[in-house]
Amino acid sequence: MPSVIRLCGVNEAMVDKNFAFRSERLSYRGITKEDAEIIVGWRSDPDNYKTFFNRRPITLEEHLAWFTNYLDDMTRYDFMVIDETGAPIGTVGLSGISTDACEISYMIGAKTARGKGYAKEAVRAATQLAFSEFGVRYVDARILPGNHASEKVVEGCGYAEVEHVFRIERADDAGGGCF
Fold it and tell me: Which residues form the N-acetyltransferase domain (predicted)?
């Protein structure tokens, strides 16, 4: 069974699919149809998809069909992660967004960008976005068993595991703090 990682949130605003934001070293913009080829390349790399729940390469046609549905799904927002040079290096997304919770997903697809702390920075930034813009109380991250690198990323962002759920209590609920 995959681990579910949970954090808490605070607010009730929403953003559109073209929302852009920044973190210390990275910038983020909504994914576009023009990003399809690079995303398919990353998603079809065995080093990447071995950590996905859908453990197989995808085709351009599959991605474009998914993207068409994505545009109509107002409970999901995916962002291209851009490094300091302006190069796309991965994606981070929030899905299943409700007033209470959402799920985060992320991938540093560019192999040259791995091991530099970008995944942690992207997860932290998207988690803060979920709290401040979407007003969720919890952010879950499902991680396949054995994906220790991903567990390390979310734990480094403040997620903690409790019975297969990584969770942090919202400040007004437990006297602690999210960030």
Answer: 26-179
Q: What is the reported pTM?
A: 0.84
Query: CB of 158 within 8 A of CB of 168?
Result: yes
Establish if 42 belongs to a structural domain: yes
What confidence tens digit (pLDDT) does each residue in 30-71 have?
Answer: 999 999 999 999 988 878 767 776 777 889 999 999 999 999
What total of structural domains would you count in the chain?
1
Q: Are strands 165-166 and 161-162 parallel, antiparallel or unpaired?
A: antiparallel
For 74, the domain range is: 12-135
| Within a domain: 151 | no
CATH code for the domain of 123: 3.40.630.30
Q: Are 35 and 49 in contact (CB under 8 A)?
A: no
Segment 108-123, tens digit of pLDDT: 999 999 999 999 999 9
Measured from the Cβ of residue 33, the count of other Cβ atoms closer than 10 Å reads 10
**CA 16 to CA 77: how far, in whole Å?**
8
Instruction: Give me 121's structure tokens.
Output: 């920075």
